[in-house]
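Build the 3D complex.
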Amino acid sequence: MPTDADASDETLMLGYRDGDAGAFDVLYARHKGGVYRYLLRQCRDAALTDELFQDVWMNLIRARDTYTVQAKFTTYLYRIAHNRLMDHFRRHDSTAVSLDDDTGPDIAEPAAPRSDEPEASADARQQAAQLLHLLDALPAEQREAFVLQQEGGLSIEEIATATGVARETTKSRLRYALAKLRLGMQAWQ
Amino acid sequence: MIPDPGAGDPGRDARLAAAYRAGARQQPPERVDDAIRAAARRAVAAGPRRSADRLRRWSIPLSLAAVVVLSVTLVTMMREEGADRWVNDAPSPRVQPPGAVVDAPAQIPAPAPAQSAAQSMAPAPATPAAPAEPRPSAPRAETPAPELRGQEHREQLAADVGSRKATAEAAALADAAAGARQDSAPRDAAASRPLLRSAPASAPATLAETATAGADKPAVAESLGPGAVSSAKAPPAKAPGTLWQDLEGEPVAKWLDRLRELRKAGRTADMERLAAEFRRRFPDAALPDDGR
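Done.
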C-alpha cells in the first residue's frame, strides 16, 4: 500500500498494521516531537525520557497487529505514553503523580520581563522560558492535561480518555492549569 | 493563591499556546529515531503476526478437535485393552500334573501389557538361570505360559520403536547363535527373546527363530546379560508367518474364525500371535466378546 503523506493518522496506522513500513515513518515523524516533549515535561529527565520514549513506540509497534480504529490515533498514542509513565512512577514509587491533587502548590511569582532586550524574538523566547518555568511548577496532573492539549491537540474528552479519568476531572485540571499559567504570564500581557 | 477559575469550559488559550510552541522544540535524539524506525521495519519484515486474531478465530474449532482426538484415542485404547483381556482370559488348554516342569510365574513376573517397549528392552532383574538340561519343546509350546501375557503387545511396541540398535543386536545375536549351534544342545531358546522382541517388525522372523532355537545358553547369556536368561520363555509352536499366510487379503471375519479355531484347539501361543497380528492389521476392528 503506497504511503500517503496526507493520510490520516488512523489510515497510516492501519497501513502499518498491514505491512507498510513507510506509513510508520510518516506517523512517527508527525508525532515523535509531541510524545517526546510530553514525556520530558512529566519526568524531567532527558535520559529517562529517551528510554520511556523508545518504550512507547516499541509498545505501539508490538501492538500493531491488534490495532483497530476505536478512537483518534493521538488519543491511542498518548494513552500508551501515559500508561508507560504511570508504570515508571509506580515502579520507582514516585510522588510525582498524585491523583487527588488538583490545586497543587501556589505558583511562584513570575520573573519580571527584561526590558533591556529590544528584540521581539528575544521577548518571545523569554515568554516561552517563563511559560515552561510555570509549567514545571504545576502539579503533574494539571501539567499533563495542558501538555496533552498542546502537543497532542486533544480535546477534554480525549485527554480524559488518554489519562483514564473522568471528563469533569480533566476539565477541572485543565482549567486550573490555564488559570495558573495565565496568572503567571500576566507580566507579558 | 490562585482564584477559582470557574466552572466553564477552559477551552484553549491562543497566547499560551503560542508561547508554549515557541519554547517547546525538544526532539528525540537521532539514535533513538533510528532505533525505533529500525524496529518498526523489522516488525514488518517479520511478517504479519495475527496470532491473537487467529487464536481467537480458531479457539472453538481447536477445542472441538482436541475433544474428538482425545475421545478417539480413549476409545482405541479401551478397545485394545479389551482385546488383551480377550486373549489373556483364554482358558488353559491342559492341566499340568503336580510334578510337571512348568515356568514359575512367581519367579518371573510378567510385565504389564502397557509396559513400554523401552522398558521391555531394559535388562530384567537377575534371577536364577533356567535348568541346564534341555527341555522338550513341544510340551512347552502347549503349556500356557503366563509370561506370554502381553508378549505380543510388547512385540508390537518394540516393532513400532524399530530402533537401529535393536536391529544390530538381533543380527549380532543371530551370528552368535550360528557359531554356538555347532557345539551345543538345544537349550532354553528363548533366552534371547528380550532382544528379539525389540527388533523391528521388518527383521526376518526365520532368522530370529533360528538364532533362538539353536543358541547355546551360556554363550548367548554372556552376550545378552543376566536379564535375558531370566526371561526365558517357551519357543513358539509355529512360525509366526505361517499362522496367517493363508489369511492374507482375507476379511476380518476370516481372521476371527481362525482365532476361534485356535482357541478351541487350545493353541494359546498361536492364538496370541494371530491376535497381535490381527490388531496390527485391523486396528479399528474389535475382537469379539465371545472369545473372552
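Residues 96-116 of chain A have pLDDT under 50 and may be disordered.
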